[in-house]
Amino acid sequence: LSHPLEVDLGITGGEEDGVNNEDVAQEDLYTKPEEVWQVYEALASVENGMFTVAAAFGNVHGVYSPGNVKLDPEILGNSQVYIADKLGLAPGSAPVKFVFHGGSGSDIADIKRAIECGVIKMNIDTDTQWSYWSGIREFEAQYRPYLQTQIGNPDGADKPNKKYYDPRECVRAAETSTVDRLAQCFDDLNAVNILGLGESKPPRNVAGPRRGGLPVAQA
Length: 219
Known about the structure:
It is a single chain. The chain is of the alpha/beta class and 219 residues long. It has helices at residues 33-44, 74-87, 108-116, 125-142, 162-165, 167-188; strands at residues 5-9, 13-16, 19-20, 51-55, 60-61, 98-100, 119-122, 151-153, 156-160. A three-stranded mixed beta sheet has the order 3-2-5, with no helix packed on it. A two-stranded parallel sheet has the order 1-4. Strand 6 (98-100), helix 3 and strand 7 form a beta-alpha-beta unit. The protein is elongated.
């Protein structure tokens, strides 16, 4: 099928989609280089095989208070050294393409080191969920007096509120907040303007002020 495969090794802590790994043994949150090699050796033997390895290095799903998550991206670096040696590759080679699960809330230093150790993808589901919700929350806070009734607001008892409670307005605010979070993520992952496409233009297919919509508060 020529479909790439992503292999999970070890356990990602925390809770996600009803699966709770908050109480797993700490040692299960850290993959050993030998385990990465076992998967790499098996899948590299597949003709035209394409795969990435989501090796556990202390990752957790969700966001927790500082100090509760102890990431160790050196596990990825050590795995690269171990496997490069097995393959007879030159020092500094990075034969494994790693995936960083549970990236939300991670320290930027750990993110940068993980990239240096071969991470090509990072998941940030929790952060994007929050950014989407935060956009709605901030929209509601900004326009609360206009969202209580269909008619009547601080501008007058007979003033309509349709353009405020139109669901597309709060959804647009949520999308704008999420775009801002993704822009930060692209910058964190060294993924800004690397494809030669230049700066993206503002979208024109949204109901912004030009089309009678509400302005979105800028962070």
